[in-house]
Predict the structure.
Amino acid sequence: AIAKKGILFDHFYTPIVGTARSIFTAITGLPDVDAHRTSSRNPLIVSQHTIINDFPGYERFYFLGGSLNWATIRGLLAANIAGLRLFEEGSYTAPRVDVWGISDLDLFEEANRVFTSSGKPFVAIVQTSGSHRPYTIPKNNRGFETRRIADAEARRHGFGAADEFNAFRFLDHAIGAFVEGARRESWFADTIFLFYGDHGLPGSAPHIPRGDEAAGLTHFHVPLLLYAPGRVPAGRRIDTVASELDVLPTAAS
């Protein structure tokens, strides 16, 4: 639904696999080329420029359902984004559902409340995590229904098993609920939304070209959706190659 009403980038790629590396890339516009661990863990290069700071008068938010105490992500964010307000496990009223903290559905609802109460323009990053093992579907799921399919059928279409397939469906459900809730708020009409994956996964599926599989491109190929009703062309598809390096410059422009 979002793709039909916004811009879908068909050939969008992250430069490398790994969430910490991807966050470094998105924030700084630089590829993470650390040979041993991640650039976020390297104190010699952690200080970088980010376009987020080029919006004076804007609030800056970062939301994660769990803890930011991994890969020195807290340091990377706090060192580079001026006046950043971090929200993580312990910041929310919603209950923790597994090792990743609160559910993606609750995370979006908590973020929505913060945006509405702020009353100021903002730049925000909401990092979901429910599509990771153990693929928890929370009891408080706003009407989500698990689809029962065989694991073999899920694998044939590129998922590890049926539980991973349903976890991605639940993420989609959470995004839909977020957009519906945001649409009722005064800031919705003036907000540009970007949805994308921080990296891909190995695997194959009938719709994936054999060349992409052979080159391992499924590790890097993810969707990018740009959604801003009335502000961007509806239903546009861009099939030229696009990179995560350009996410913030594109949003800023």
